Amino acid sequence: MSIHDERAIWAAYQATRFEARVGTETVAIHIGECSADLDAILRRHTHTAWTFITAWNPASATLPADQNMRRNRDLFARLTDDGYVVFEGAGVPADPGWSAEESFLALGVSHGNAIHLGRAFGQNAVVWGALGGPAELLDCRPI
Predict the structure, then answer these.
(1) pLDDT given for residue 3 in this prediction
(2) How far apart are CA 75 and CA 135, in angstroms?
(3) How far apart are CA 94 and CA 15, in angstroms?
(4) Strand order from edge to edge, sheet including 49-53
(5) Beta strands in 54-134 (DSSP E)
(6) Block means of pLDDT (10 residues each) for the chain, length 143 residues?
């Protein structure tokens, strides 16, 4: 991957809107922004941190839908087995040439565990945040 391709991919991640369905509401998460709605959800579930993660298209390489769905089922099982509170969602790209990716908002995930989960599922990045803070894009690529 060239440096220009890498920059384009990271810019696309930055521009993505991350949406989670929590009960009857949809919470939109934007990189670099705080979310009062998300803070309220954290308080309601007595957590102080969260991550937004998918198992789709590892390293931004497109996979067939059946493989992506299987990978996400495995991720969901891992998140729930680890005891996180999990809500379904999607990463909705700003670029119409990219497709939305089914994802999860998981409450109670530490910064380090968010990176670990991203790496375990082959992701370049995950979104993470803490109560009162902005959403951060975390680099999960192996060092």
Answers:
(1) 52
(2) 21
(3) 6
(4) 25-30, 17-22, 85-92, 101-107, 49-53, 125-130, 136-139
(5) 85-92, 101-107, 125-130
(6) 72 94 96 97 98 95 95 98 98 87 98 98 97 97 85
Residue 73, phi then psi, degrees to nearest 5: -60, -40
Q: What is the pTM of this model?
A: 0.94
Sign of CA pseudo-dihedral 24, 42, 38, 138: negative
Q: Are 48 and 130 in contact (CB under 8 A)?
A: yes
Taking a C-beta distance cutoff of 8 angstroms, is the pair 63, 56 a contact?
A: yes
Predicted confidence at residue 17, as pLDDT, reads 96
Pairwise CA distance, residues 119 & 103, whole Å: 15
**Apex CA 35: angle with CA 69 and CA 11, to 5°?**
60
Distance of CA 11 to the CA centre of its chain: 15
- Residue 67 near residue 40, CB atoms below 8 Å: no
CA gap 14, 69 in Å, rounded? 24
On whether the CB atoms of residues 100 and 79 are closer than 8 A, the answer is no
- Tokens 């007595």, located at residue: 46
